[in-house]
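# nightly structure sweep
# worker-07 picked up a monomer target from the shared queue
# config: single-sequence mode, recycle default, output format = structure tokens
# input follows
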Amino acid sequence: MSFRSGGRKLSFELLSSDLTAADVDDISSRSLPETSSDGNRRRRRRSKRKQGFQSPPIVEEEPRVDGNAAAAFRVTDLRSVVEKVCQSSDVEGSAASCVTRVGVELRQRSVAANGRLSASGDDATSSCGSSMRESVAAAAAVADVIDAARRPEANGVLKKLEKDESLDWEKFIKENGNILGEVERRDNSPFRYFIGELYSGNSLRSTIAVGNDKKRQRVYNTMFHVPWRCERLIVAGFFVCLDSFLSLLTIMPARIVMTVWRVLKTRQFLRPNAADLSDYGCFIVLALGVASLQMIDISLIYHVIRGQGTIKLYVVYNVLEIFDKLCQSFGEDVLQVLFNSAEGLSTCSTDNATFELMRFLLDEAIAVLLLVHSFVLLAQAITLSTCIIAHNNALLALLVSNNFAEIKSNVFKRVSKENLHNLVYYDIIERFHITAFLLFVLAQNILEAEGPWFDSFLINASLVFMCEVLIDAVKHSFLAKFNEIKPVAYSEFLEDLSKQILNEQTDDRQKDLTFIPLAPACVVIRVLTPVYATLLPSGPFIWRIFWILLWSILTYFVLAIFKILVGLVLRCLATWYINLRLTRKQHVD
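# output follows
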């Protein structure tokens, strides 16, 4: 295929035909690059500043070639582009010469690609050079020309920048005198200061901020909600402890009598179940405890304690209270182990019966150590009786010192919700123990008091009981306040206690109220035995045995009726409260 097919000229022929001899001479004379180093530096700086500049587009068309040539390119004539740029702006001749040199450079490359070099191209190339760095400098020169054409000064329009007003520092300081955060100096006149304080607002505004609804709710919780819910929980727990106490005195003897009657009737000894073995173990501990306390002379201990000073009474009572809590915690674990051994003995095989029996006897021997708890409670009851009967304000001193020491040891500590739960249960057990102590004091007054004593006993007993209620309310109110525990927590505790009353097994058995009625029962039986002895008539031994059995049966029936009433009422109230909680949760959800 021929290069000249289609009647079109090649690019190098166009370029050679367009440029005349005069033009070549002119181009050769103007397109010589500046040889000085300053000119090269200026071109480099301009090329760096105008990196985003793009040279005028070069339109390439596919040439028609014949079979003898590989390829041919047509380069547009750059002369017209250069002429347009030069017409739009009156610039120096050096810029035009550089643009023309760019065109020559491109023309040289096109010709070299075709393998044909004309004479005019050789002359232009020899005069201008073929360095790529100079081509980039020429492109930067073209960009300067275009920018110069676009400037307002080139069109005869010149905008002057307005000069900002200088900052007068003295004037600025006068207008903004407190710019450095200095405190304004106030008038030191006493009269004006007093008048300003009278009309400036709240007199305590400098030390007390204005509260909000959250603070108001916090005050209401401390004053009303927490004491009410806490006392409701303690009262319910008190009756749960009373129900357990009555079960020990009524249910356990009835089960033992039924077992003995069955053995005597059938004359066959069957292996007892776990519940029977547990009752046998508790009955042995109770019997040994009552027998041990019967050997103690209460009058001797009473006079020994009464001869001590007030401060020593306070020390003795607090030491006994600490031992009471320790024995309560240890007795809980001992009885749980004993019940576990009873289950193992009732379900074991014949081969392991000897081992299980020995383990049950060992745990029973350890449980006998609970007698120490009964001695501690008896000594504590005698100390309280001494303070009540004394006429030197020993009771008031004991109550104040003991109760406020309890507040100090509990209120100003970080307590979690679980620890608060256990603390409430300790208060429930303490409330029941105090009731047992007051019953002991009542029995002692019946036996030994002379003259009118009942009124003073009621006043002192009411004082002790009300102080305990007040101290528990204050303690739990501020515990909830300092530890940010809401009153609904006590409702949750009461719900757990209600489930325990209904024997609903929960996942966490640690939330159950644990109470051991063995030690209080030993103390109550020990103190009521002399009272019943005074009711027995004098006469033959058989007659006395008859009256002992009669009073025992009457007492048992009274306690059994009381147990039935307490148990049924507790179950009804527990069912009602659980349903109430479920209803409220559904409304909340």
